[in-house]
Write a structure and sequence with these properties.
The strands form 3 sheets. The chain has a 7-stranded mixed sheet, with helices on both faces. It has a 4-stranded mixed sheet with strand order 1-2-3-4, with helices on both faces. A 3-stranded mixed sheet has the order 9-14-11. It has helices at about 5-10, 20-30, 40-50, 55-70, 70-80, 85-95, 120-130, 150-160, 175-185, 185-200, 210-230, 235-265, 300-310, 330-340, 355-365, 385-395, 415-440, 455-460, 470-480, 500-520, 525-570, 575-605, 605-610, 620-640, 660-675, and strands spanning about 105-110, 130-135, 140-145, 170, 285-295, 315-325, 345-350, 370-375, 380, 400-405, 410, 450-455, 485-490, 495. Helix 12 (about 235-265) packs parallel to helix 22 (about 575-605) and helix 20 (about 500-520) packs across helix 21. The two termini are about 30 Å apart. Among the domains are: about 35-185, no CATH class; about 235-255 and about 310-315 and about 375-450 and about 460-675, no CATH class. The protein is elongated and about 105 Å long. It contains 25 helices and 14 strands. With about 700 residues, the protein is α/β, with parallel strands linked by helices.
Length: about 700
């Protein structure tokens, strides 16, 4: 069940790889030689001297380039020593070619197809340099290039061998090449982002809520239950008990099994480790970070600060902040926050329906060049060493490991009753339940954020379903159906839970609706699902999705039956034997469910949480009743507005810093300071590059 929607998306936003194989092998060869040789040619030295850089700064950048498999110019920009525009101007001066911006109205000239290939000299140039052929509105040909400093001698020899071609050559920045390609492919990427999965594999997309067969089955069930409610209400009551109690108890047993695993596992102090050290000497690949933002202007500063602290070489990190094109407030706030940070870029999403997070991520996915990719949300504060931990796990595993889920920890659990229960849920889910599912080989629904992917695997299954409002859970199942594995790591991401009831209700409704969408989508072909997941995986899927949804309804049903029985006892005395039996079964199921959750949640808490959160467990029945109400609202909304995304608003954090996170951040900051202040300002090209002169823009972010 592998689809080609990912390859279509890749074609829509095709980029020249900023780190092509020839460049990587060249850097590797240089790294293998003696560093004392410092293989700078006279032309390279002259170019670096024109930038006013000290030899020590250049030597340090060269050492980082050899270690990271990049080039000296990228390392200088990443360290903030120069801007990309300054570097392009110096390279243009060295080659005797004008440094120029690419006009927004310039059209890309496609060299593909019979007889449409570039001339031989241009093919030779393209083997060495990142290039882009365009045609200006005046029908003038331009060949823009972004040479590396290490390639200047080879490029100059090629240009001198073909002096008649010098007039069409221009030097620009690598980001300018990327931005122009992104802008010209935007509408095609947006269309594929909306309909790629549903067009290629409609049976795996939630664009259609019900199939005709599912609608018929639902209609028969509803008609039958309605008839029983009128003709034989007590029979209906007994049937509902027989259907709901086993599923409710099965969920309780699963939680107990997860708690048992926690009890038997060794817990390190603080609860979190970094992972196996096997990849410590491996060169770091490019890591892509995607964050979808909508109405998040208040969160921009904190988010950028948290992502800037990630422990990863700046030259090997690309952070794409994906904003809706009509969300001017968020775009402006993000632009101000990322100014002077070369690893950040803004990706704009054309306004269209469905207005969902997965659609926005699909628009950005073809632009990502990283071997690995992680998703965060606006309120997330990942521990700085999370990328390192995920990378080490990937390196120690086989390629079929497609995704790693990092745990989410609620920082504001002590702030309110709702956030306290939310924190308990997250502790039980991310530190107990999901690791247990992974350990026993059951399908694992992802948590929506802090998902680390092998990018190739993500594209192989078509990315995200733009019409599913819990795209995370659906993607986890599609990965499992395609034969990939999902595991968990224990380096956390911190975030705040909703404190207002309306925010909590809307978010929980969306989750319930999305889980119902996911169950309906994958149950369109039960035989195919059984074949893809196997018997254990199939029943695990039913437990996870149908069991969870049924449990939410069953909880309200069981409480209602207890209340009715109490009324009968109060008004008419002792009930009949059958009612007493049902009452005993209900009490047992409810107590088992509560106890299982309490055991799992309390075992998953750390010392700080254990001092503040368990007091909320006394009101667990009331909280679960709210979940039942959200489930009923989700069922109604699935019919009336299935693809509506009720966004959860986020606010600037009022939570105290987590000590472990603060300590890690201090450690990472010290490390970054030791490698030339990589988190300080280095600039990107202006997003309004419409003029003919390449202008420095030290405080202007990159837009894609």
């Amino acid at each position: 069940m592998r689809d080609d929607a990912g390859s279509l998306a890749d074609a829509a936003g095709r980029f020249y790889d900023p780190f092509p194989d020839s460049h990587k092998s060249g850097a590797a060869g240089l790294a293998a030689g003696p560093f004392a040789a410092r293989p700078f040619s006279d032309l390279m030295l002259a170019t670096l001297a024109s930038l006013g850089l000290a030899r020590g700064t250049c030597d340090d950048a060269w050492a980082r380039a050899c270690g990271n498999g990049t080039d000296i110019g990228l390392e200088l920009v990443s360290a903030g020593a120069v801007s990309e525009e300054m570097l392009a101007a110096a390279i243009g001066l060295a080659l005797g070619i004008a440094a120029e911006a690419i006009a927004e109205t310039a059209s890309i000239v496609d060299c593909e197809g019979p007889g449409a290939g570039p001339p031989f000299w241009e093919m030779e140039l393209c083997r060495t340099v990142r290039t882009l052929r365009v045609c200006t509105p005046c029908l003038e040909a331009r060949l823009f290039m972004a040479p590396r400093i290490e390639d200047l001698d080879a490029v100059l020899r090629l240009i001198d061998a073909h002096p008649g071609r010098r007039s069409i050559l221009r030097v620009t920045t690598l980001r300018a090449l990327q931005r122009h390609r992104a802008s010209t492919s935007l509408m095609q990427r947006a269309e594929i982002a909306r309909f790629g999965l549903s067009a290629c594999h409609p049976h795996l997309s939630a664009r259609q809520v019900w199939t005709g067969q599912q609608g018929m089955v639902a209609g028969v069930l509803i008609s039958g239950l309605s008839a029983l409610a009128v003709l034989a209400p007590w029979l209906l009551l007994h049937l509902l008990h027989l259907a709901m109690l086993p599923l409710f108890l099965a969920c309780a047993v699963a939680r107990l099994q997860a708690a048992r695993r926690l009890l038997s596992s060794r817990r390190t102090h603080g609860g979190f480790t970094v992972g196996p050290p096997g990849a410590s000497a491996t060169r770091r690949p490019v890591y892509s970070v995607l964050v979808a933002l909508h109405d998040e202007k208040e969160m921009a500063g904190e988010l950028v600060a948290a992502l800037s602290a990630l422990q990863w070489p700046t030259s090997r990190l690309e952070v794409m902040l994906v904003c809706e094109g009509d969300d001017a407030g968020t775009i402006a706030a993000v632009a101000a926050a990322i100014a002077g940070r070369p690893q950040f870029a803004i990706v704009l999403v054309p306004p269209s329906l469905p207005r969902t997070k997965p659609k926005a991520l699909n628009v950005a996915l073809p632009l990502a060049t990283g071997e690995f990719l992680v998703i965060y949300d606006a309120e997330d504060r990942p521990r700085p060493d999370q990328l390192e931990a995920a990378f080490q796990r990937f390196c120690a595993s086989e390629p079929r490991l497609a995704c790693l889920q990092a745990p989410l920890i609620v920082r504001n659990g002590a702030s309110s009753w709702l956030s306290g229960h939310f924190a308990l849920e997250y502790a039980a889910l991310f530190r107990g339940y999901l690791p247990w599912l992974s350990s026993v080989g059951l399908p694992l629904p992802l948590g929506g954020t802090s998902n680390h992917f092998r990018r190739d695997a993500l594209k192989a299954v078509g990315g995200w379903d733009s019409h599913n409002v819990t795209e995370d859970a659906d993607l986890g199942i599609r990965l499992c159906r395609a034969g990939y594995r999902i595991e968990t790591i224990d380096v956390p991401t911190f975030e705040d839970a909703p404190e207002r009831f309306i925010d909590w209700r809307n978010q929980r409704t969306r989750w319930m609706k999305g889980w119902l969408q996911t169950w309906l989508v994958h149950m369109r072909d039960p035989v195919g699902l059984w074949r893809d997941l196997g018997a254990k995986g199939f029943f695990g899927f039913q437990l996870l999705f149908f069991g969870m949804l049924t449990s939410a309804v069953a909880h309200a049903f069981l409480l209602a039956f207890l209340a009715y029985t109490a009324y009968v006892v109060w008004s008419a005395g002792s009930p009949d034997m059958l009612t007493q039996g049902l009452l005993a079964a209900d009490v047992f199921a409810l107590v088992a469910g509560y106890v299982a959750f309490v055991i799992l949640a309390t075992r998953a808490l750390d010392e700080e949480e254990a001092a503040a959160l368990p007091r909320h467990l006394w009101t667990l029945p009331a909280y679960w009743l709210l979940i039942s109400l959200a489930a009923f609202r989700a069922f109604r909304q699935l019919k009336s507005d299935p693809h509506a995304w009720e966004k959860t608003p986020h606010y600037a954090s009022r939570s105290p810093a987590i000590p472990a996170m603060a300590a890690a951040a201090v450690s990472v900051t010290a490390r970054l300071d030791a490698i030339a202040d990589q988190d300080n300002a280095g600039s990107g090209p202006a997003h309004d590059m419409a003029g003919s002169v390449l202008r420095p823009s030290a405080a202007t972010p990159i837009h894609l």
